[in-house]
Design goal:
single chain; alpha/beta; seven-stranded mixed beta sheet; four-stranded antiparallel beta sheet
Length: 597
Amino acid sequence: LRRMLASGTATVYGTTVVRRHTATDAFHNRHIGPSASQTEEMLKIVGYPTVQAMMTSILPPAIVRPGAPVDGAVAPKATDGGAATDGTMAYAAPMSETQALKHFSSMMGRNKVLKSLIGHGYYESITPPVILRNILENPGWYTPYTPYQAEISQGRLESLLNYQTVVSELTGLSVANASLLDQATAAAEAMSLAFQFHKKKRCTFFVASNCFPSTIEMLRTRAAPLKINVIVGDVRKDLDVENPDLCGILTQTPDATGALHDFTDLFAKAKTNKVISAVGTDLLASCIVKSVGSMGADVAMGSAQRFGIPLGFGGPHAAFFAVTKDFQRSMPGRIVGVSKDAEGNTAIRLALQTREQHIKREKATSNVCTAQALLANMSAMYAIYHGPTGLTEIADQIRQHAATLAVGLETAEATVLCKNFFDTITFKLNGMTSDEYTARCLEKGINVFHDKAAQTVSVSIDEATTDQHIAALLEAAGMENPNVAEIAQLAASSKQLPAALRREGSFLQHKVFNSYQTESELMRYIHRLQRKDYGLTHGMIPLGSCTMKLNPAATMLPMSLSLIHISEPTRLLSISYAVFCLKKKKKNIIATINNSV
């Protein structure tokens, strides 16, 4: 959208396009930016006649696109490299904010938005309107800069402290940070922690093969320059915890197939051999399932996305990261803590920072991409709004729907592969290939995950899954007119979680998590925190660029549109992303996009 919202006067293919200076939605009238004379002066200094010529000289020829003419401008013929006949990037005339939003909505309206039950770290969640309107769409929350200056950041710091409390209590570990970039990079940070803990003398890291594929690929990528030997295999068959070169292990529960595990014995053996035990887990599952901290894990990480964050177009989604006290000094990212000043007044501050911008590089454990503060704040408010009782009810509902699906599939003669599960059911069908089942689900508007090689299908239930979705999944498996209510009653008695895997004890008993369960109360709490902060709503912030402070409202608005949520994966980018990129039709690019889904 920002590229569509160009200056009000421009030369387009030799024609000067002039917009009314008084236009109420002309982008250049409403936002800070260089004037035509300033742009001309800068171009003279760098030695280019136009901005397009400068950009053409910078970008690789293969990705320079012709652009779509707007407002009647006639586009020149493009060469094979995507540039105009004069060798420069073709130029599209500027749009007003209204035109850009209308054009954007038109393009995204071509998407086919399906119910996504693919899972693997991505689950539809219900964002409470009070959080959507008062945080995600509120510049008082999305424009303030990173909370380094505690005296003008007390509101967000309190919210991030709440987030850390949620993560710490649900994982059962004593220290949590204020979020990381995403789940896959959080796993890479866990590997780096184990590697650095052993002073880089142990160079092997074991990863369970049933971790999410994206996690495994990220670990391999990050391990290569560090010369860490990543071994991916079956924990029961391939792991040797007595290997003197082993610095750490990464497991997952629930894993990619949905299976729940109790790693208590494994983590105890690892600790005996001074091997760091890291585990990927699910915050919502942790509301009813045994915490990984009680299993003896050293590190826990995962995605906080299902705590009220929309799927979006695959992200961004905040990651969580928690450790035992033994590793708090090796924690990546930043930790919010509570302190007292000289007069005994309580204040919240960034208690620990590990980014290379703030401390000596050789002692840093994180690079620049270390937080998703806005999304972490949304997840914190989600936990506050629902409270421990509400979170438990949501988790129980998900587990019950998954159990209902499992019983229904077994009735349809499918083989359910996971005995103990939370939200994901992996199964093999009788008399039907995984491709055929997937196609039937697509016809019903549902996306599922299938493994062609293993001929298995995985379905991940989420907060927004309904009885109608369960019925559609069972119909796709060959069951006629499934009675979901009756199947649910059977599942309630036959598919209960074993006692050994159930969570023991209460969580989130602090006052803040039990006081704001009405919309009005939460709205007031959000705005009480907001009034403690300084953002673009108060004045200009002359700091950094890693913030949304300068994003115009017109470019933030599409974040709330359902049209940009996950679409049909087999056609996801060919019908959505390619359209969004102004109909880039080069076959090699489309093929690359489709092959990456």
